[in-house]
Amino acid sequence: MNIRELAKALGLSTSTVSRALNGYQDVNAQTRQRVQDMANALGYRPDAGARRLVRGRADAIGIVYSAAVDNLGNPQFLEMASGLSDRLEQDHLDLLLAVAQHEGEWSMVERLFRGGRVDAVIVPNTFVQDERVEQLLEKGYPFVAYGRTSTHADYSWFDFDNERGSHLAVNHLLGLGHRRFAYVHAPLELNFASQRHVGFLAALRAAGLDCPLSYQVSGVNDRRGGLGAVARLLALEAPPTAIVVDNNLGGVGVIRGLMDAGIRVGADVSVVVHGDIPSDTLLPGMHVTTVSQATPYQSGQTMGDMLVRVLKHPEAGPYQVLRQPALIIGTSSSLCRN
DNA sequence: TGATCTTCACGGTCTTAGCT
DNA sequence: AGCTAAGACCGTGAAGATCA
User: Fold this and answer.
1) What residues does the HTH lacI-type domain cover (predicted)?
2) What pLDDT is attached to residue A16?
3) Distance A116 CA to C4 C1' (A)
4) What digits encode the pLDDT tens for the residues A243-253?
5) Rounded distance, CA A42 to CA A37, Å?
């Protein structure tokens, strides 16, 4: 069923049918109702390809992420995508999730734009130096970055105050009497990891403390990495009394590793984790102290809102939202006993 | 003259007809 | 067989036509 067949069934031109279905005011109300009724009865749906061809719009937003980053294994990512999708739906925009398996992320982004498959993209997992952001700016493609980069002045982004989050974590642990810290973090090329790392070290320095390199475990952004980090830290001559982890999945791995080693988390060692612990995580009796952000669903909705504004009112941009974190105190942190 | 409807051109890709 | 030109596909929107 295409518009031509629908128009023939109604005895109208295709144009009148199109205009009736698209809310043009110069179509008689009765005609409009008749067209809508017939379209419903015959199950008419406009051909998305043809519509895209004419409008020059895809009515879709894309997120391209690398298969190397385990986003789909992170419930927070899926929750964010859900919030994003819900918000976009209000403006009749679809969300297109694409995985860059072998092809580079930027290459896929460019292919989606050139093919008219998306009107704008979300740039997830931003790097300190991010080719995707630089290329998007150069080509003039609309986007919202989920996180800043080192050059964050001239484009739209949504981010958290990561440095402040680290200050909250460190100050909380300092207040509990901890002096020997370890830091477990994602690769520092990632902007959020870089900012949290800077904040962590600055907060320690402000207290006259240091975190030697042997107490810093890099490249941890999943559960397995967290387990490995614990093995390294427990092998130290003087293991840390407090561990800060800059990402939630790594944090789950660290806590699991400590528990498996027979260490009482929150009693023998205190742990603070950036980001919320996935609700399906099996850490019985454990309420993890976290540096909490807005819920991922809310973040997704906010970015959806920003994308709509980027598309409708680009001249009023760039749109930039910096959310403040809050410390949620659980049972994984307590007074230092050493 | 305003309300309502139709005609026609447009876009990129694919198929088909016609030619060498 | 290989190439090129023409036309179809589909929905939209500007411009034009019709009618009361």
Assistant:
1) 1-55
2) 82
3) 28
4) 999 998 899 99
5) 9
Residue pair A333/A290 in contact by the 8 Å Cβ criterion: no
Q: In the structure, how far is the CA atom of residue A31 from the C1' atom of nucleotide C15, in angstroms?
A: 22
Q: How many CB atoms neighbour CB A270 within 10 A?
A: 26
Query: What is the reported pLDDT for A102?
Result: 63
Distance in angstroms: CA A19, C1' B17: 36
Nucleotide in closest CA–C1' contact with A14 = C11
Question: Over 70: is that where the pLDDT of A26 sits?
Answer: yes
The second-level CATH assignment, the architecture, of A60-160+296-323 is 3-Layer(aba) Sandwich (3.40)
Per-residue pLDDT reduced to its tens digit, A252-300: 999 999 999 999 998 999 999 998 877 666 677 788 999 998 788 999 9
- The tens digit of pLDDT for each residue in A149-179 reads 987 678 999 999 999 999 999 999 999 999 9
The CATH code of the domain at A3-46 is: 1.10.260.40
Q: CA at A46, C1' at B3: how many angstroms apart?
A: 27
The C-alpha atoms of residue A253 and residue A260 are separated, in whole angstroms, by 10
H/E element, A146: strand A143-146
A228 by DSSP, 3-state: which? helix
Architecture of domain A162-294: 3-Layer(aba) Sandwich (3.40)
